[in-house]
């Protein structure tokens, strides 16, 4: 995954965004691409608002339920505005609760980690419990007892993972239900209808997703163009734009020209937020960074940018520098079920015999319930205990999930704090130094190159 990379953009650091602004910034595109130094803490205020609009397929305006506030130093309090499902600070990592349940955590425990926004999956909830149950219970917040924000994937990503069962036409995606083998059709209208029934605060358009590693350029182009057409159908079908925020999804594989065309088309539709889709499909990280950088360079400053399916700490830290704001991935929770703990110094597998008699906490200084000493209100668990339970006891997976989710959300809190204090480059240097024990020769070249492209030398002392 880690490949060589040269600088692909030569920009001068631009500090313009670090000035305080509490209203939506001008749509005017800055002449320089958004760089590392332009990132600053912002909050997604998900609420009833007509401050931004979505342009429908016939040119009609639709209201939006999201405001985007850029936070500079001294305006921290704005990140805590009282809102229906809570203000969301950016950049953010969103844990994935695919089936309206975060595997390994109760919602109380998830709330305790400070999580303000997590994911549900439309495709899975549409199959079970199904739209009728969702409508009768009054949506997914009520179904799962989660009073904070929800984002739902459209189901498009499942096309990649279930492609053997699915066929894509202009109408939608036909597939066989994994529950009963019945043929099903997911159209943009159906996806939005389901997400309207789910009631998620952020909903995603149905997009035509092709693996970035696909060699079929014509199909990638078709998928990009179809995703734009499907966005129009989604905008048209969306019943509650005043309370649910529809995000478009930029497609185009690894072809930067296609990505640019897609950005231009979708920016015109003026959706409340914008996602960069189709990545994290096994492409090399240099290509990944080029796509993110190309897209963020073309997207308006006043919209959250969500890079879908990204979850390794290094990828997130670099993507934030490239101008991305939102991330999600099953990795931190899935890997916990295999005994992997995410630490500041990298990832360790607690099933390894070397931890059998290691009586130190999972991570020294971690404030999660597992690591926090008993005299400070935590469980004070040791690596030795975790080693003992991870292999065979379900509680091991639960505890480690708690630590890993806490780690990711704490990492994002530190990222935000560093941006707020205008010291993100120093944060990134410290972050990489800890992972590679200060050995710069081990730093991944893709990261060094991507950061160089936004005016930061990772190898500098
Ligand atoms: Zn911990």
TrEMBL record:
<keyword id="KW-0819">tRNA processing</keyword>
<dbReference type="GO" id="GO:0008479">
    <property type="term" value="F:tRNA-guanosine(34) queuine transglycosylase activity"/>
</dbReference>
<dbReference type="GO" id="GO:0046872">
    <property type="term" value="F:metal ion binding"/>
</dbReference>
<feature type="binding site">
    <location>
        <position position="366"/>
    </location>
    <ligand>
        <name>Zn(2+)</name>
    </ligand>
</feature>
<comment type="similarity">
    <text>Belongs to the queuine tRNA-ribosyltransferase family.</text>
</comment>
<feature type="domain" description="tRNA-guanine(15) transglycosylase-like">
    <location>
        <begin position="83"/>
        <end position="435"/>
    </location>
</feature>
<keyword id="KW-0963">Cytoplasm</keyword>
<keyword id="KW-0328">Glycosyltransferase</keyword>
<protein>
    <recommendedName>
        <fullName>Queuine tRNA-ribosyltransferase catalytic subunit 1</fullName>
        <ecNumber>2.4.2.64</ecNumber>
    </recommendedName>
</protein>
<feature type="binding site">
    <location>
        <position position="371"/>
    </location>
    <ligand>
        <name>Zn(2+)</name>
    </ligand>
</feature>
<feature type="binding site">
    <location>
        <position position="278"/>
    </location>
    <ligand>
        <name>substrate</name>
    </ligand>
</feature>
<feature type="binding site">
    <location>
        <begin position="153"/>
        <end position="157"/>
    </location>
    <ligand>
        <name>substrate</name>
    </ligand>
</feature>
<dbReference type="GO" id="GO:0005829">
    <property type="term" value="C:cytosol"/>
</dbReference>
<feature type="binding site">
    <location>
        <position position="251"/>
    </location>
    <ligand>
        <name>substrate</name>
    </ligand>
</feature>
<feature type="active site" description="Proton acceptor">
    <location>
        <position position="153"/>
    </location>
</feature>
<comment type="subunit">
    <text>Heterodimer of a catalytic subunit and an accessory subunit.</text>
</comment>
<feature type="active site" description="Nucleophile">
    <location>
        <position position="328"/>
    </location>
</feature>
<feature type="region of interest" description="RNA binding; important for wobble base 34 recognition">
    <location>
        <begin position="333"/>
        <end position="337"/>
    </location>
</feature>
<dbReference type="Pfam" id="PF01702">
    <property type="entry name" value="TGT"/>
</dbReference>
<dbReference type="GO" id="GO:0006400">
    <property type="term" value="P:tRNA modification"/>
</dbReference>
<keyword id="KW-0862">Zinc</keyword>
<dbReference type="InterPro" id="IPR036511">
    <property type="entry name" value="TGT-like_sf"/>
</dbReference>
<feature type="binding site">
    <location>
        <position position="403"/>
    </location>
    <ligand>
        <name>Zn(2+)</name>
    </ligand>
</feature>
<keyword id="KW-0479">Metal-binding</keyword>
<keyword id="KW-0808">Transferase</keyword>
<dbReference type="InterPro" id="IPR004803">
    <property type="entry name" value="TGT"/>
</dbReference>
<feature type="binding site">
    <location>
        <position position="207"/>
    </location>
    <ligand>
        <name>substrate</name>
    </ligand>
</feature>
<feature type="binding site">
    <location>
        <position position="368"/>
    </location>
    <ligand>
        <name>Zn(2+)</name>
    </ligand>
</feature>
<dbReference type="InterPro" id="IPR002616">
    <property type="entry name" value="tRNA_ribo_trans-like"/>
</dbReference>
<feature type="region of interest" description="RNA binding">
    <location>
        <begin position="309"/>
        <end position="315"/>
    </location>
</feature>
<comment type="function">
    <text>Catalytic subunit of the queuine tRNA-ribosyltransferase (TGT) that catalyzes the base-exchange of a guanine (G) residue with queuine (Q) at position 34 (anticodon wobble position) in tRNAs with GU(N) anticodons (tRNA-Asp, -Asn, -His and -Tyr), resulting in the hypermodified nucleoside queuosine (7-(((4,5-cis-dihydroxy-2-cyclopenten-1-yl)amino)methyl)-7-deazaguanosine). Catalysis occurs through a double-displacement mechanism. The nucleophile active site attacks the C1' of nucleotide 34 to detach the guanine base from the RNA, forming a covalent enzyme-RNA intermediate.</text>
</comment>
